[in-house]
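Predicting holo structure, PBG bound.
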Amino acid sequence: MYPLQRNRRLRSNEAIRSLVRETIVTPDDFLVPLFIVEGKGIKEEIASMPNYFRYSLDLLENEVKELWSLGLKSVLLFVKVPDNLKDNKGTEALNPNGLMQRAIKKVKTVCPDMLVMTDVALDPYSVYGHDGIIEQGSIVNDATVEVLAKMSLSHAQAGANFVAPSDMMDGRILTIREALESEGLTDTGIMSYSAKYASAFYGPFRDALDSAPVDMANIPKDKKTYQIDYANRIEAIRETQMDIDEGADIVMVKPGLCYLDIVRDIKNVVDVPLAVYQVSGEYAMLKAAADKGWLDHDAVMMEQVTAIKRAGADLIASYFAKDVVKLLNR
Ligand code: PBG
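Done. C-alpha cells:
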C-alpha cells in the first residue's frame, strides 16, 4: 500500500528496469519465413511487404548465410509455384525435384545446422488458391489429408527437420505423424498451425505467393469452412488440444497481435512449445505507417514482438526477425 510501496522505484532508471524486466526478446525466439521462386539471380521485393523478398535458389544461399551469421537458426520455407504447375490436387507438391524439395536441400547444403521447417498446404499449388482439394464446390477433408501426408513425407525425405501443416483440415496431424513413423522418419517434427484463424491479415502473403482464392463460380471466396472464426476462443483451445493428442510437437496461434488473448489461454493449458505467427498484414501495417512517418518503426516493432512473447509465445515466426536481431546486435 502507498506510501510503503512506490512502484516507480523499480522504474527510475534503465539499470533497475533491466534488472526487473520480465520478458527479454532474443534471436533464439525467431523463425524466419522465406519465400522462394524459380529462376536465377532473382531477389524481388513483394509489393505489399516492403523490404521483404522472394529469392531464387542461387540467391537464397546468401540470405541463409546472413541469417545464420546474425544468430537466426531456423527458417520456414514457402514456395511460389508457376501457374502451369498448379492443379486441383497439388500434384506438383509431391514432385521429389519440386521447388520446395530443392529449396530444402539448398538450405541444408549451404548451412547444415540451420533448422528447416516447411509449409505444408495445397494453396500455393492449387489452381483455386485453396488449402484443399475441391469437389462440387467444397473443400474435401480426407482426400486433402492424404495429399498433405504425402507432401510431408516428401519434405522430410528431402531433409526438412519439421513439417508445418497450415491447412486446418481435420485429422491431418495424426495422418502425417503415422506416415512419417511408417517410413522411419521418427525424428521429423510437426509444428501444427493448430489455431489458425480465417483472417484478412493474410492478404500480403497471398500476394507474395500469388495464392489467393480465385474469384470463380462455385469456388468458395474465402477459407471460412476450414480456418477458425475470429469470434471464437474455446474452439482454438479444442483444436490445439486435438493436435497435441494427434502428435504435434509444437502448436501455433496465428495471426499474432489480434490474438494474444488466445495465446495466453492456450499457454495456460498446454505443455508443448507454443509458436505465434506475426503475419504478413501485421508486417505491412507497421511498414506503411512507418513509411508515412506516423509510427517509430523500431520502437513499435520491439513493443509488438515483446508483447507476443509476454503473452506466451515460446517462438515467433516473423518477417521482422532480421530487423529485430540487427537492432539487438547494435
Ligand atoms: C497457407 C498459408 C497462409 C499463411 C501461411 N501459410 C495463407 C493462408 O492461409 O491463406 C499466411 C502467412 C502470412 O500472412 O504471413 N496455408
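The chain has a mean pLDDT of 98.
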